[in-house]
Predict the structure.
Amino acid sequence: MITINFTVNGQKKELEVKGTATLLEILRDELYLTGTKEGCGKGECGACTVIMDGKAVNSCLILATQADGSEITTIEDLEHDGALHPLQEAFIEAGAVQCGFCIPGFIMSAKAFLDKNHYPTREEIKMAIAGNLCRCTGYRKIIDAIQLAARKMYGEKP
Amino acid sequence: MQKKEHNVVGQYTGRLDAFGKVTGRALYAADRCFPGMLYGAVLRSPYPHARILQISTNAATRKKGVIAALTASDIPGARVFGVVVKNQSVMAEDKVRFIGDGVAIVAALTEREAREAVGLIRVEYKLLPAVFDVEEAMKPDAPRIHQGDNVFIHHKVRRGSIEKGFQEAEVILKRSYRTQRIEHSYLEPEAALALPLPGDGIKIECCAQNAYSTRRSVSEVLGIPMNRVEIEQATMGGSFGGKDEVMTSLCCRAALLALKTGRPVKMVNTREESFLESYKRHPYILYYKIGAKKNGRLTAIEARIIADAGAYASMSPFVTWRSAVQAAGPYECLNVKTDAFAVYTNQAYTGAMRGFGSPQVNFAIESLMDELAQELNLDPLELRLKNCFTEGSVTATGQKLNPGVSLKEVLQKAAGEMKWEMKRALYEGEKRNQDYIKRGIGLACSYRGVSLGAEGIDAAATVVSVQSDGSVIMWSGISDMGQGAQTAQAIIASEVLGISPDRITFFPVNTSRISDSGPTVASRGTIMGGSAAKKGAETVRDSMLKEASIILDESIDNLIMYNNWIFSSKNRTKKTSFSALAGECFNRGVKLFGFGWHKSPSTTWDEKTGQGQAYFTFVYGCNVAEVEVDTETGQVKVIRIAAAHDVGKAINRAGVEGQIYGGLVMGMGYGLMEEFSIQEGEPQCYNFDEYLIPTACDIPDMKAIIVENPDPLGPFGAKSIGEPATELAAPAILNAICHATGKRIRELPADLEKVLLDHKLKRISKRGSEEK
């Protein structure tokens, strides 16, 4: 077992982990942050996307030990006491949610992207979520939602 | 103020479950845990066809952490299950029939221990000759996969005289088409949690699409009555027809382990396990012959359709029946002969997948109609308009269509949206250019029987329960797999009660809490569940209005329920809020509970003549696709696609659009990229790195055209959209490719090599780097 120290959703955590444990396993099984989903286990579907030190990563491809010293944000950190993040509001308003299994991953990819790109084009949004699979929505309303969220957060391009 | 037809129906665009899903709070089956919970794992067959001589679980049971290891001989009740044909094993007893067939199960303290223990189970197999090619499997000397013939289904449709029809024809085309096996690719892999209940009962929280058929099988396998098996759906992460038998076997296995150990057992498939063991969409071989007059009028259609069912029957009998009924397309033709067969082979079994036998026949008949148009030098749209169903048309099964046949309307609306005539001529003219990018436009249309039809009994239940504070609880026997069934039903109930859907909390399906409502399949959720919700709400409405009439001293006929208020249309001061009325009703002992039960109008089918009233109503749709083909790489880019669907009435417009966009992209994947390839019984793809589904970068500009011709048989006129939305994109795209390149592709998918080389590239079994 290896001891890791990291920050998850603003809280400092110290955990004993197996060398083979992934960040995804730790988040779900140790910290009960089950909003992060496992869809493929090999970095293809993006359902396990979290933000690690400002970057969207597939948490199934990160060993827990690699997360030592890092700052992790999961979907659970976006809503506080029922107040939603603009991305979450936008996903609801745009009708982008169907089965919802992929949605936390999409929102985390979109958040990491919008944090850096405030006025994205649709093509840039598509590239930002190219690593997230959705089988229900055909992506159209997800792209609409991200565009809507960008406007909510940063307004029109000056 | 302009009077709206409805206040909530077609107006409300939210989703009841959206908050939980955007916050990560919604609990899917794999997100749940229970104290003392064990983890289950499955040993699956490495051989496509083999007799089991002996199984030893000794080494596995001795391993640290292992609590139980079970095989077929440990099953107390039935060892096989199946909705139509009972021949699917929970765990293989005498023999395995495909690579991936379940053989034994283990429960251990951790998932890792369970998976490792599975590797310690020793199975002695005697290999049997296997058959993988569906036409080989039809031969009399082919290895038998079950008792009886490998060809286990033959559906016929016979109308008029096919001989006479071809004699009258001035042009006859014979063509064959092939479709591929595809994987549902729901993002949530299968998961089930079984909890032992006091007194040998079992509760299973899971993502089974059809909780009632799963319950029946679990009850038979455990040998306990149905009231001791409680199946409750967790939030479901997609299904598309795919979480039926594969979930039934998972639930049976988890239940067996839970009852054996007396502890909760969780079983979750990895994506690899899901790809290996779950069923797929049937690959079809379709032989068509069509006869027409020179003016384009059809005189005869003959189709011989062979479906590869794989190792188990699953839904093949019903899938191929729908194919047989709809094989001749939405066209008037007096002489039709269809034969549809389902055949066992030693590979992944095939079953229900969104479309359910229609994507395959639509691809064939809609490709064939374009080929005929070319032969007759007619525009494909013109040929369709000349032959398509219209009011009063009679289908291939001799059924006179109900009023509201809107095929011409959907064809014209989709074609108009895409500027069909202009683009057709423009791209035709571009063919002479030297540019390596070629553009084309193509279309496809269909009619589709709504709900189960003559497949079986068709009824559903929904409860509407108003609380004394005016909030409302609903639950139904219809599943929400992500398509939005709960929201649609809540909108319908809200319309009836004059309330906002946000007042409603909707509970998931629980088999012990509401009547068996059949499977949530066949695009029947809205028309059946919605009708039940309407009836349930009407029951409550009637008792509330009766009470309001007394309280407000006003005749019931003058009372209006609107926007959370009840008031008199004659005297607006006579009013009460919905919440106050609910409280008053409660205080006076008025029943605020409505049980809605809806049974569909009857259907008929004669197996011998292949004639009957196959479905009680139909929907009509058309897709028009525009593509760019890179003739140097074979890459096809879908630029734009328009989909016109007559849904009867859109209950939730945002939901209908979502179904259309999702359906189009899934249909595009079927047309251009997806193939679950199996060689010698061995799947060639185990995850999304090898099995490609469309990403956000692949999607075209999409236009959803919602056509509304309300159907008196649906709630507020609503019919279906789930499956219609995905059954036309592939043929529309393939027709567009042919328009662009002049080359007809008769085998799905139209991937790079097929577009560029006209044939598939086969992967050699071992690449250089993989040599042993």
Observations:
- Chain A has two domains: 2-76, 86-154.
- Chain A touches chain B through 52 residues (CB under 8 Å).
- Strands of chain A lie at 2-8, 11-17, 49-52, 55-58, 71-73.
